[in-house]
Amino acid sequence: YGEKQLGCRAISPVWMSYYIDGCGQDLHCDSFHGPFAYVLSLTPWEGRVFTGGETLILQPQLLGSFWQSLNPNKGLELSDVVTLVEPHFNQLTVFDPRFPHGVRPVAGTRDPQKGRLVLHGWFTEPSPFFDGPLPESDALQHLNAALEPMFEQLQALPQVTGTITMQLTVSGKTGAVSNVRFLADTLVALPAAAADMGLGSGLLDSGTVRGAVQHVIRDSLLAAEFPECEAGDTVITLPLVFE
């Protein structure tokens, strides 16, 4: 999953955690471990004998445009501030670890066999993956040739931070890129960078920056040229990390 959907070569050492009565986790960020965090639930959620235990993830509008989106005539509840993710059995939750996140305190059982049980960690080492008959060295050479002018175009846009992962299909018959599909996108525009370019906050709130970045990436990859390969098409999974 990490390779095909996120473009990550490895995972961190897996942690196992169980939560019983009184256990929870305060909001925190741990993005230094890797670009994507995960929680794999082993909790028999439907038959649980406790309350709480949901994963809490702070909602995006609180991290950059809270005052712009705040309605002073309307109150806020917990569900307006955080996303609650119930840990159903065998459910894999993947999220951006830069978002403050935690776990609602568990109440109702002190039996570890009946508490909240999860495996968790981070997907790490983002790097390109090549699936198909085209030799990796040839594919990488031509891919880098397409990325250089792409990065020059991106410099004209407000700075972003995060990870975006694409999957491109290279036609063996023509060597052209026949399809570009975005798999994961945690890009966030930096307000300070936009202000330096004379752009207002509305641009950031509307998601125009992210859309413009995706547009440049898609057009650049669709224009890439690869060697023809009679043995068939090649699929490339490409993660790009912006810091």
Tell me the layout of helices and strands.
Elements (H helix, E strand, L loop, with lengths): L1 H5 L1 E4 L3 E5 L5 E4 L7 E6 L13 E4 L7 H4 L8 H4 E4 L6 E4 L5 E3 L12 E11 L2 E3 L4 H19 L5 E11 L6 E9 L2 E2 L1 H6 L4 H5 L2 H15 L11 E9 L1
Antiparallel strand pairs: 1-9, 2-9, 3-8, 4-7, 4-9, 5-6, 5-8, 10-14, 11-12, 11-13, 11-14
Per DSSP E runs of 2 or more residues, the count of β-strands stands at: 14
For the record, give the distance between the C-alpha atoms at the N and C termini, rounded to a whole number. Answer: 24 Å
Mean pLDDT across every amino acid position: 91
**SSE class:** alpha+beta
Beta-strand fraction estimate: 25-35%
Indicate the overall shape.
globular
Order of helices and strands: HEEEEEHHEEEEEHEEEHHHE
Major sheet: 5 strands, antiparallel
Counting H and I runs of at least 4 residues, what is the number of helices? 7
3D structure, described in words:
The chain is an alpha+beta fold. It is 24% helix and 33% strand. The protein is built from seven helices and 14 strands. It has helices spanning 2-6, 66-69, 78-81, 136-154, 191-196, 201-205, 208-222, and strands at 8-11, 15-19, 25-28, 36-41, 55-58, 82-85, 92-95, 101-103, 116-126, 129-131, 160-170, 177-185, 188-189, 234-242. Strands 1, 2, 4, 7 and 9 form a five-stranded antiparallel sheet that branches. Strands 10, 11, 12, 13 and 14 form a five-stranded antiparallel sheet that branches. Helix 4 (136-154) packs across helix 7 (208-222). The two termini are 24 Å apart. The model has no long low-confidence stretch (mean pLDDT 91).
